[in-house]
Amino acid sequence: FILPKSCLFMVSLKEIFVHLTYMTLHDSSLSPGEELWDNSAELERRCRLGSEVTSLSRSFSTEKSEHNFRLSSNLRYVLFFSMYPDRERPWRMFAVSSTESFSMNLTDFRDNALLKLQVGGPFMTGMEGVPAQEYILIQVEQMVEIGSRRKRVQQILHNWTIPLHSKRNDQILTTRTFEMLAGAPISINVQASLLDNQVVPLSMTHQSLYVTVETQVVIAGVILAGVYVLIIFEIVHRTLAAMLGSLAALAALAFIGDRPNLKTVVEWIDYETLALLFGMMILVAIFSETGFFDYCAVKAYQVSRGRVWPVIIILCLIAAILSAFLDNVTTMMLFTPVTIRLCEVLNLDPRHVLIAEVIFTNIGGAATAVGDPPNVIIVSNQNLRKTGLDFAGFTGYMFLGICLVLLTSFPFLRMLYWNKKLYNKESSEIVELKHEILVWRQTAHRINPASREETAVKCLLMQKVLNLESLLRKQLRTFQRQISQEDKNWENIIQELQKKHRITDKVLLVKCVSVLSIVIFMFFLNSFVPGIHLELGWIAVLGALWLLILADIQDFEIILHRVEWATLLFFAALFVLMEALAQLQLIDYIGEQTALLIKAVPEAERLAIAIILVMWVSALASSLIDNIPFTATMIPVLINLSQDADVNLSVKPLIFALAMGACLGGNGTLIGASANVVCAGIAEQHGYGFSFMEFFRYVLPLFRVFAFFNTILK
Could you give the dihedral angle defined by the CA atoms of residues 505, 508, 514 and 517, in that order, rounded to the nearest 10 degrees? Predict the structure, then answer.
């Protein structure tokens, strides 16, 4: 069979076609004299057969999507977003001193409910060690006529005091929202209380909003709940759910009068995290070509002497230790391929082992100040450093707590999996055959036939799927379940596996190990040496480019096919969603309500209740929303709470409770931590994806144990 040259539009497609043609011509299920493509009628029949299979799959997916997710609800968000224009926010530059003030009048307030002021200047960020002696006073005044018959004028005055920093270096932006009465003009007066006659330069912008803070919080809560409903019940893919949630949140901002422009929305995306993910995906994709992951799987099987639980404990312990010094995402990207190959060798279900690994990765990341982003945010805060909360002190305290969590988690994990059958219910041949069918089917669905040659290739793929399904039915009819929890002939199995799974490219392995070692070493230096001005994303991308040059990759598209683009889009949409929810005052509202609950507790029990409350709120919030903006929001709330004379609480126990809850709270849901999403994406690419509810079913008991022992430790 000769394929026309126009069909060879990419090298990977050519390899698939040749491979499929060879396997189909040598299929044992066909008679020796049977011809596959002897005439055009046979080609047309098989193409029609593949098209019917594809159309059935598409029609079922379309009916399910139309039944569960209405198109009208999507258009509603688009209409809200398109009906309200971007609000221009011109910045007004001015200067004030002890003798000169600044005033402005707003006459176009109309029926708005809130006035949002954003002021930039050399302000203090929180607790600076000494009380502020200089400050800026902003007065927002509104004269309102009340009464229906006998009208009288009532003055509404809001005072906003912002402390000034002694050094006029950094420009800090601060925002506050004022509740105003509709229809009355507003006067804004800015005064300065200074020790000398210096001039303080300031910048200010204002914006009018249509709804109250409580309404914004309700809207944000409804949007967040809707996103979780889409993900939990798998109505749509989690990437599409995050994108729809982002669109709904942006539509809500447009509805309240705070629609951001496209430049602002793009700035919300954390490109450092995306660059880190992209660079590590490229490195792992090239690394997998060496056969190193198969070799590691065989060695782990040899060390465990064919027993399952020693392998799982070793993998989880190594993952926890590495996560204490590396980023959790990096650890899971390196461990997930090894774990999948190991489970395939042992005939295990990789989902159970991957979930256990990602749980211990999040636990280990909380042990040090550089293991998890919330810890980095806490240690980097200059105000907390002045209280003695440095790298060594933070790591020493958190390390003791995490060791206790690890000691209790291993036996509890064994009890949790006690009745779980980690082995696959079928033989390894049947499991591999099912997995092969899934991979071929996914490959066929990814081809969008735009030409006759592409249609022929897709028909070949679907024909191969049909042949494999026929072979699978024959094996299932004759299969007898014979599963042994411990292989008695593990030595013979190891010898066979060592012959089958070897290092395929030693030269490429040396290059990959060298580049990856340097990248990991630079990760360490970035955490401990402040003189290196390269972020983690830059290090990963530069390492990927370096390895691409050394490996001399000819077909770059094959490497790009292994990049989890759906995962990258999910994180980008999630960043936009979380920032939009923050603009809707959801995160600030959670912090303020937590502070109010702590103040309501009697003084004798206030510290213990405050620690438990902060930890539980942080854990629950971090399992639902991103823990990075939540931690950044809660730090000034806890600092101000500790400075309140009526509360009389130390800031260190509250910060430790925040760190423990924010880091371990990522184990609460599938999207609670970045490592969870990355692990699920890689597993799905290998054909072993797990859903939101599958992850939640396993982590819920462990989540309760974490909170219980952390409460005892506090």
Answer: -70
Residues in contact with 52: Cβ distance below 8 Å, sequence separation at least 6, in sequence order: none
- Say if residues 458 and 447 touch (Cβ distance below 8 Å): yes
- What angle separates helix 271-287 from helix 536-551, to the nearest 10 degrees? 30
Q: Is the pLDDT of residue 559 over 80?
A: yes
Residues contacting 677, CB < 8 A, separation 6+: 238, 567, 570, 571, 670, 671
Q: CB of 200 within 8 A of CB of 149?
A: no
The contacts of residue 616 (CB under 8 Å, 6+ apart) are: 661, 707
H/E stretch holding 16: helix 11-25
Of 569, 513, 559, 668, the closest CA to residue 273 belongs to: 569
What gap in Å lies between CA 54 and CA 445, rounded to an integer? 8
Residues in the chain: 714
- 146: helix, coil or strand? strand
Please determine, for residue 19, whether its predicted confidence score (pLDDT) is greater than 50: no
Give the residue among 106, 73, 57 at the shortest CA–CA distance from 206.
106
Could you tell me the two tokens for 1?
């069979």
Is the model's pLDDT at 472 over the cut of 70?
yes
How far apart, in whole angstroms, are the C-alpha atoms of residue 55 and residue 47? 12
Query: Which comes out higher in pLDDT, residue 84 or 224?
Result: 224
Question: What is the reported pLDDT for 427?
Answer: 62
pLDDT digits (tens, 9 = 90+) for 287-338: 888 888 778 777 777 777 767 788 888 888 888 988 887 778 888 888 888 8
CA distances from 27 to 50, 125, 136 (A): 18, 71, 82
> At residue 597, what is the residue type?
L
CA distance 31 to 578: 59
CA distance 402 to 411: 15
Distance separating alpha carbons of residues 431 and 576, to the nearest angstrom: 40
Question: What's the mean pLDDT in 274-279?
Answer: 88
**Does residue 229 surpass a pLDDT of 80?**
yes
Strand order in the sheet with 172-179: 92-96, 200-209, 114-121, 172-179
The span from the CA of 353 to the CA of 316, in Å, is 9
**d(C-alpha 697, C-alpha 689), whole Å:** 15
Give mean pLDDT, residues 24-34: 38
Q: Which residues pair with 209 in a beta bridge?
A: 114
The pLDDT value recorded for residue 388 is 76
Let me know: does 589 contact 213? Beta carbons within 8 Å: yes
Q: pLDDT per residue over 117-131, tens digit each?
A: 999 999 886 544 455
By the 8 A CB rule, do 276 and 332 touch? no
Give me 667's structure tokens.
């184990």
Count Cα neighbours of 187 within 13 Å in the Cβ-side half-sphere: 10
CA distances from 442 to 34, 357, 644 (A): 28, 26, 59
Please choose, from the candidates 224, 213, 218, the residue with its C-alpha nearest in 3D space to the C-alpha of residue 620. 224
Q: How far apart are CA 317 and CA 367, in angstroms?
A: 13
Alpha-carbon dihedral of residues 29, 35, 40, 41, nearest 10 degrees? -60
pLDDT of residue 423: 60
Q: Taking a C-beta distance cutoff of 8 angstroms, is the pair 352, 699 a contact? A: no
In this prediction, residue 80 carries a pLDDT of: 62
Instruction: Give 682 or 500, the one with higher predicted confidence.
Output: 682
